[in-house]
Specification:
single chain, mainly alpha, 8 helices, 2 strands, globular
């Protein structure tokens, strides 16, 4: 729960501090500008709110690791992926997108703090505990924080604690640890295909390199 709040607060703060002109810069999500990524985060925050008020009375079917599926890299043909830039553009000035994100994002943060970690909720036709569901989003928020600042070198990055937690989650999903020589940030970026490995990193990865990128869906 604390890591969720920590990662979400850091991401929301980073978005608030992005200058309006930088909303037109590329993000770390292929084909999306910063404004498109922030619009996606609005939808993510809505999903958190919806899921936390969708109780389930059956046993969990997944946890924070098995929730994720490894999928093929996006092709840009997914209807939702194409919709996001149109929605983002409809806000016009960045201040309106910032306002909506802060409004919905604040509500999602409050709902998470008030939720019972042991309660069970339903999403994507699966059941999991609130604690596991919020752990899922520690990885999501941390990766998208890295996406946000990909072309904003002066922006603050994710907190060290959430980078470490996100790396640990990705390693559990992969079933393989990244080499100790990898920083947490490098493990997340290389592991999810957000940047290619250097020659030295590829050598350190060994056979694991052939399994990358780990595209989460």
């Amino acid at each position: 729960m604390d890591l969720f709040s920590h990662s979400w607060t850091a991401l929301r703060t980073a978005v608030a501090e992005v200058p309006d002109a930088d909303f037109e810069r590329p993000s770390g999500c292929t084909g999306w500008l910063v404004r498109d990524l922030v619009c996606h985060l609005v939808i993510d925050a809505q999903d958190v709110l919806i899921t936390l008020v969708t109780p389930a009375d059956t046993e969990p079917t997944v946890d924070a690791v098995t929730y994720w599926h490894l999928v093929e890299p996006p092709t840009g043909e997914d209807p939702l992926d194409a919709l996001i830039p149109r929605l983002a553009a409809a806000y016009g000035e960045p201040r309106w997108l910032k306002f909506h994100f802060d409004d919905v994002g604040s509500a999602a943060g409050r709902a998470a703090r008030l939720a019972d970690p042991a309660a069970r909720v339903s999403t994507r036709d699966e059941v999991l505990t609130v604690g596991d569901y919020l752990s899922v989003y520690v990885l999501e928020w941390t990766l998208h924080h890295l996406d946000l600042i990909a072309c904003l070198p002066s922006a603050a990055g994710p907190p060290a604690e959430t980078l470490a937690a996100a790396r640990a989650s990705l390693e559990e999903i992969a079933g393989t640890p990244f080499p100790a020589s990898f920083s947490d940030r490098a493990a997340l970026l290389v592991g999810t295909g957000r940047r290619p490995p250097t020659d030295a990193e590829k050598a350190a990865l060994g056979a694991f390199a052939a399994r990358l990128p780990l595209v989460l869906g």
